[in-house]
Amino acid sequence: MTAPATRLLPLALVAVLAACSPGNTPEDDGTEQEQAITAAQQAAESAKVPPPNGAADAPPPAPTCDATQVQGLVGQVLEDATAEQARVDAGAKTVRVLEPDQMVTMEFDGERLNIEVDATKKIVAVRCG
User: Fold this and answer.
1) CA-to-CA separations, 85 to 8, 45, 80, 103, 107, in angstroms, rounded
2) DSSP label of 39
3) Closest CA to 112 of 48, 51, 66
4) Fewer CB within a 10 Å sphere, N or C end of the chain?
5) Close Cβ partners of 99 (under 8 Å, ≥ 6 residues apart)
6) Membrane-spanning residues where (predicted)?
7) Nearest to 115 by CA among 85, 86, 72, 81
8) 23-61 pLDDT, tens per residue?
9) pTM of the model
10) pLDDT tens figures, 47-99
11) Which tops the pLDDT comparison, 102 or 46?
């Protein structure tokens, strides 16, 4: 089931259950049930329509970074050319060098290679994100 359809299922169930609440006359029950079924069908149909520009429910892009390809750099001294070659070898779009005590944003980017270095610029870890 697609994500929009799973969001609408509880609404449809609530509408059907509301039609069964006590205090309604049999005629009201039939009308409310028909309305609930119609509303659920319309909701299911609208869930089939993709969002405009595919933005709202589009899955995130698949990560392209593969840090396993550059693990051999751990222990080496980082140079600009090494960082760029590591980015290319890992298939990452960007590279970020993380130095000791540096403030770092915590958002995950599956297309970014992170190279962690110590105070002497020696590479201590290489990971994607």
Assistant:
1) 48, 49, 9, 25, 24
2) H
3) 66
4) N
5) 117, 119
6) none
7) 86
8) 555 555 667 777 777 777 777 776 666 656 655 566 666
9) 0.53
10) 666 656 655 566 666 668 999 999 999 999 999 999 999 999 999 999 999 99
11) 102
**What percent of the chain lies above the pLDDT cut of 90?**
47
- Measure the CA–CA gap between 91 and 85, rounded to whole angstroms: 10
Q: Which two tokens stand for residue 53?
A: 């520009």
Burial of 24 (0-12, 13-18, 19+ CB in 10 A): middle
Q: Which SS3 state, helix, strand or coil, does residue 12 take?
A: helix
Domain boundaries, the chain: 3-54, 67-128
Cite the beta strand spans of the chain per DSSP E.
Answer: 94-98, 112-117, 123-128
The token duo for 119 is 């105070």
Domain 67-128: give its CATH superfamily.
Answer: Trypsin Inhibitor V, subunit A (3.30.10.10)
